[in-house]
Amino acid sequence: GKKSLRQKVVDELRHYYNGFHLLWIDTKVAARMVWRLLHGQVLTRRERRRLLRTCADLFRLVPFLVFVVVPFMEFLLPVFLKLFPEMLPSTFETESKKEEKQKKKLNAKLELAKFLQETVAEMAKRNKADTG
């Protein structure tokens, strides 16, 4: 059914709380990784990607905080997210947005695979014609 205004506000506040909490956890983990880097240890590829994502999220947090801090500015957030879709830190993404991104990536991979298959088939035809 439809949610009441109170329930919508509570859901949004919970979403922001969870997003900030996840960002805090990521920041603590990233600080440990930086500490390890400064002491000469090598990061794995996965750790390096996580560190880069967390740093990017911290830089994205600055304009996002303007929307949260300034009164009634959060009403403009959907407009800015439409104009700048990568403005939101990754910990604040909803499940539907994550699924949408995964679908786009999958479609791109399928198109690439289709193109490569067609290319290989064309090359096989040319080789067969050259040898035959």
What is the number of helical segments per DSSP (H or I, 4+ residues)?
A: 4
Helix content: over 70%
Distance between the termini: 68 Å
Note the beta-strand portion.
Answer: under 5%
Q: Quote the average pLDDT.
A: 88
Described by strand count, sense and barrel closure, the largest sheet is: none
Q: Secondary-structure element sequence?
A: HHHH
Weakly predicted, low-confidence segments? none
Query: How many extended strands?
Result: 0
Return the domain count.
3
Task: Summarize the structure in words.
- With 132 residues, the chain is mainly α.
- The protein folds into three domains: 41 residues; 44 residues, no CATH class; 38 residues.
- 78% of the residues lie in helices and 0% in strands.
- The chain is built from four helices and no strands.
- The radius of gyration is 22 Å and the shape is flat.
SSE topology sketch:
Elements: H1 5-38, H2 45-69, H3 77-83, H4 95-131
Keywords: Membrane, Mitochondrion, Mitochondrion inner membrane, Transmembrane, Transmembrane helix
Protein name: LETM1 protein
Main location: mitochondrion
